[in-house]
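Annotated sample (chain length 241).
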Amino acid sequence: MEAGFRSFDYQRSIERIDEILNSSDSLYEDKEEIPSRGLLTFNNGYYVKCSALFVDMRGSKELNSGKHTRPVLAKIFKTYISELVALLKDHSGVSEVYIEGDCVWGIYNTTKKKDIDNLFSVAARVSSLVDILNIKYRKKNYSEISVGVGLDYGSSFLIKAGHKGTGVNEVVWLGELVGRAAQLCSYGNQSSGDKEIMVSNAFYLNLNNHNKGLLEKNEFRNCYHGNVINKTMDKWVKDNG
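Output written by the structure step:
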């Protein structure tokens, strides 16, 4: 979020610290689904069941090694990020989508098992989207990219954090869920023994039998993994590759 200069007043800072530290513990509630942003204040929070999907580029340092001009690099990253954001929003339970460098990730309401299967479908389409992007890059003589994808289901702590009264604030997700999904994402395509999509044991257990059959156990990473694509998008890849 863009920010401007504002002088720091330590006495006001102490007041804000006390306001938060002295707020009632009862303001931090358990929820089975993600509440509206409008319900969040600087003095409350929610512990919610949800899923996280992370996508991160592999080898982005090499991409920035000088092979391409800055305008070309901008075109690669803009197309990659814009289309990932568009795809990660294509789930009825989407709550938040974030961009952190060349990582794009989202948080999703997955109160029903079909929601988890639908999110797995989003991950498969991510793989096919990367294939489409690489065809476009190859035809321009640009470097191709690869990604890792991580999926997890569990509980996360949702709070509003920032500087009260300034408009500088953000929804923050705390706890193991986001960290696990990010870690799984970092494993994807990391080595020859790691497939592109990495799925936690909890996420895997909630998939239907068909989707479970598309994955296999990765004992070294203690998760499930697979190279899974979307058939419709893959037809375009085969016709245009």
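Annotation: The first strand starts at residue 28 and ends at 31.
Annotation: The mean pLDDT is 92.
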